[in-house]
Amino acid sequence: MKNNLSTYENLSREDILKILKSRDRELYKFKTLFDHLAEGVYMTDCNTKTLYVNTAYEKLSDNSREHFIGKTIYQVLDEKLIDESGTLLAIKNRKSISIQQKLANNKIALITSTPIINDKDELEYVVTIVRDITEIMNLREKIIEREREIQKLKSQKERAMNFMYKSHETEIILEQSKKVAKYDSTILITGETGTGKGAMAEYIHKNSNRSDKKFIQLNCASIPASLIESELFGYEKGAFTGARDSGKIGIFEQAHGGTLFLDEIGELPLSMQSKLLTVLQDKKIRKIGSDSEIDIDVRIITATNRDLNSMIEAGKFREDLYYRINVVPIHIPPLRDRREDITALTKEFLREINEKYNIDVDIDSEAFHTMYYYDWPGNVRELKNLIERLFVFAKNNTITKEDLPQSMLINISNKHRSKDIIPLNEAISKLESELIVKAFEKKGNVRDAAKLLEIHPSTFVRKRQKYIEDGFIK
């Protein structure tokens, strides 16, 4: 018999299924064969009554076969020996079904249940092949946990650098910024108002070899044209009427050895643009009222929300200065083009304000997903200010969709409205249901889809079922 068994040990699952299609006497003839298989075998009749389990399944389940044989799958489920049945699914669908199953001893198995149908198209048996994947799943969980730890450390590091993000777009920008930070190349940061150009400039400084030196910021739009030169270069005592008796040190001198960030460079008057160009080329400054020049060692970062090319064509910005400051361009997309950052930013702003006032205010999923679809014309600055306002007026320490500004809901509704006017709540439901469908299509299962949306799996299932019932999901 031993020699005969050795000929069957390498049979494929398909060959085993063919054997099972034979008469009952053939089935029992090969019981010994099944006991030599490394994978578990669990077989029931067409009424789900357990007929046979092999030795491998006994070891996997930590139960003898007598504990199963004679019981229906319903009884096995009631006794919580398994958490889900592939047998029932195979009978219902009359085709092979593969699912993940958890046993009573907390082991995890990948099972494939196949209905055995005779020549009369009658279901006779269901055979389930069971493979222990506990170690694989544990390893997967360890990898996921490790990734979480890495992301946590990454977030803590980036938080220290004044930059929170989650989107791939922002990650690419930060990688580029870290690379250019090592060099003293002049940088031009562009982007809409409120996108975080100042934070990016500081991020570059903190990643540079000048990080232990000063970071000086000047908003060119906030200084009157008559005072910009004295702010930039300083002046000697008595240089002009009203000048300080001690004179003044300009920000170029203040930033010596460090980084000077000139925000809203497009607002700089033409007369000062030529002087700035000279300083960038010669790396020397001359104070107002002085006959001598001062050597300066400053890394220059500029930023603007204006279209400098259009300003050049209109004669409002010097072309030669543009090329001098635009050695390394960095563009920060608006928040609506990197919506995944809304997650990280919202959590960070809420964390900061909770920590400041020692209060634990949270935001529910409906409010968050509504904010996700808003266009954020004011970008990160608008988001931060809104979180502070919502924090102040939050009821029961929870920010809900009802707390969001009406203007935000109108913006979302107008963006996605049909030809007919629909209620705002209906518009939000439509958007949320679309997000749920996209997440499930992308991940293929509830747990990963819920994780992508950062909600609990039970919340995902509840919302999905609700939108199916309401007709938003077909």
UniProtKB/TrEMBL annotation:
Pfam families hit by this protein: AAA_lid_14, HTH_8, PAS, Sigma54_activat
Domain Sigma-54 factor interaction: 163-392
Top-rank taxon, per record: Bacteria
Residues annotated as domain PAC: 93-145
GO biological process: regulation of DNA-templated transcription
Annotated Gene3D superfamilies: 1.10.8.60, Homeodomain-like, P-loop containing nucleotide triphosphate hydrolases, PAS domain
Domain PAS stretches: 26-80
GO molecular function, one term: ATP binding
Keywords on record: ATP-binding, DNA-binding, Nucleotide-binding, Transcription, Transcription regulation
NCBIfam families: sensory_box (TIGR00229)
PANTHER family for this protein: C4-DICARBOXYLATE TRANSPORT TRANSCRIPTIONAL REGULATORY PROTEIN DCTD (PTHR32071:SF57), TRANSCRIPTIONAL REGULATORY PROTEIN (PTHR32071)
Protein name stated in the entry: Sigma 54-interacting transcriptional regulator
Lineage, highest ranks first: Bacteria, Bacillati, Bacillota, Tissierellia, Tissierellales
